[in-house]
Amino acid sequence: TLDDMADDAVGLCDALGLGEAHFVGASMGGMIVQTVAIRHPARVRSLVSIMSTTGNPALPPARPEILALLMSPPPVGREAAIDASVEMWRKIGSPGFPFDEALIRARSALLYDRSNHPAGQARQLAAILAHGNRAPRLADVRAPALVIHGSDDPLVPVEGGQDTAASIPGAELLLIPGMGHDMPRAIFAR
After folding, report:
1. What is the DSSP string of 60-120?
2. Contacts of 16 (CB under 8 A, 6+ apart)
């Protein structure tokens, strides 16, 4: 569950001897850092939620073609998995920035070789869906918060970032035109 993953993050901080920490998460990681702030407020010095959402069921879902890709059977074999990954990143990536296929292909190969476990993706999606709406609980977060979201995200629409920022008192919202559900190198300096 997201609660387990949030507790794991705090457990890692314990193992490292960190009392408070700055938490940053992207996509599902953003949901996890939100959950850390809810469950362990004294441990969060600040939080950054990137291309994520609150789980509010009133928000727009991912685009249907993206949901279809997420629900399709996993590819069989290394090359097919790499090709599917490149295709997914092409569809969810940032339309306002160049698509670096060579980088995505190389990263996808590294990730496949490190740990290819397709059932994990289904479990992650289930954990997200089962967690529910964090927006009401985010109202109690007092840590400084930055929410970064792309205006052109087809997987987690921009309303997810807007709702996250609106739900955390005093949160700053940084919207990046042309950014999708990735972090293109062209925005790294920003």
Report:
1. ----HHHHHHHHSPPP-SHHHHHHHHHHHHHHHS-TTS---HHHHHHHHHHHHHH---HHH
2. none
Say whether 25 sits in a helix, a strand or coil. strand
- State how far the Cα of 93 lies from the Cα of 179, in Å rounded to an integer: 7
146, 48 Cβ separation under 8 angstroms: yes
Gyration radius of the chain over CA positions = 17
- Whether pTM exceeds 0.85: yes
Angle at 110 between CA 109 and CA 115, to 5 degrees: 100
The strands making up 21-26's β-sheet, listed across from edge to edge, are 21-26, 44-50, 145-150, 172-176
Residue 30: partners with Cβ closer than 8 Å, 6 or more residues away? 49, 50, 51, 52, 53, 164
Angle 17-51-102 (CA atoms, 0-180°, nearest 5)? Answer: 95
Dist CA 149 CA 28 (whole Å): 13
Residues 133 and 31 sit within 8 Å (Cβ to Cβ): no
- What confidence tens digit (pLDDT) does each residue in 117-156 have? 888 888 888 899 899 999 999 999 999 999 999 999 999 9
